[in-house]
Amino acid sequence: MKHEIHIEDTGERYACDEQETVLNGMAKLGRKGIPVGCRGGGCGVCKVQVTSGDYRTTRTMSRQHVTLDEQEHGIVLACCVQAQSSLSLKVVGKLHKAMCRGLMPLAPTQAPGNHLALQG
Predict the structure, then answer these.
(1) Which has the closest alpha carbon to 46: 88, 85, 5, 81?
(2) How many helices (H) and strands (E) does the chain have?
(3) Is 97 helix (H, G, I), strand (E, B) or coil?
(4) pTM for this one?
(5) Domain 2-100 is in which class?
(6) What is a single molecular function from GO for this protein (predicted)?
(7) Per-residue b/e over 8-26, b at no fewer than 16 CB within 10 Å?
């Protein structure tokens, strides 16, 4: 089964099969500069923070790159997790630098009907 992965930093979305890692799915975006590193949890270049959704860990992550506290707050290595539902994530560290290089910051959006009342 495929799930949609949303990269909050860039607005990109991609489909990721439950049997592939989030990093392998991300690499299929075909973007230059996505660091894939060792793909085994030891180098730390694919660090992300999952902000919503369910995933499962497929291998041990180096504690040098992801502490237990970070992992409890959704920070994981994309090469070590598989999506079990649609995910939203933020890219962290070296991956953030590579993914967001040259991008303009996303402008905050205003919800419809959420206007300031002017007093006159």
Answers:
(1) 81
(2) 3, 7
(3) helix
(4) 0.81
(5) alpha beta
(6) 2 iron, 2 sulfur cluster binding
(7) ebbeeebebeeebbbbbbb
Reading the block at residue 58, the tokens are: 């497929």
Quote the Cα angle for 28-91-41, to 5°. Answer: 75
Q: Does an H or E element contain 100, and which?
A: helix 93-100
What would the two tokens of residue 72 be? 């409890």
94, 45 Cβ separation under 8 angstroms: yes
- How does DSSP classify residue 118? P
Please give the structure tokens belonging to residue 23: 């990093």
pLDDT in tens, 35-84: 778 889 989 999 999 999 999 999 999 999 999 999 999 999 999 999 99
Among candidate residues 40, 41, 92, the one with its CA nearest the CA of residue 64: 41
* CA of residue 33 relative to chain centroid, distance: 15
Compute the distance between CA of residue 105 and CA of residue 108 in angstroms, rounded to an integer.
9
**What pLDDT was estimated at residue 38?**
87
